[in-house]
Amino acid sequence: MLNIEVIAKAYEDRPLWRLCVSAGRIQFYLLNPSLKNSLDEERRMGVGFPKSCVFCADEALFGALDSAFKGGDAAKLAKLWATAKPLAQ
User: Fold this and answer.
1) Alpha helices in the chain (DSSP H)
2) In angstroms, what CA-CA distances link 21 with 5, 26, 35?
3) Distance between CA atoms of 29 and 23, rounded to whole angstroms?
4) Could you give the CA distance from residue 20 to residue 77 in angstroms, rounded to a whole number?
């Protein structure tokens, strides 16, 4: 189990702060950190996200992404996502 904090790009470029719990060939399996201890073992396996949508954790970047998303600023959101460092090299 990896247990690495990451930023995930979800539907409509929404940023999510998640925990990467495992890696497959083409995707990472992510879990909401607040649910880590409350779910049964099967659900702790996480939800698959394409590797292209998972980025290294950066609290400042996440805050900026979240603000841009909530503010509906698509142009700023796109520029911020372009600065995110992919988790997969």
Assistant:
1) 59-70, 74-83
2) 9, 14, 12
3) 6
4) 23
pLDDT digits (tens, 9 = 90+) for 38-57: 655 656 678 899 999 999 99
Average pLDDT over residues 21-30: 91
Alpha-carbon distance of 48 to 74, in angstroms, equals 25
Q: How far is CA 49 from the centre of its chain?
A: 8
What's the distance, CA 68 to chain centroid? 16
Instruction: Find residue 85's DSSP bridge partners.
Output: none
In whole angstroms, how large is the CA radius of gyration of the chain?
13
To which H or E segment does residue 28 belong?
strand 27-31
Band the pLDDT of 85: cuts 50, 70, 90: very high
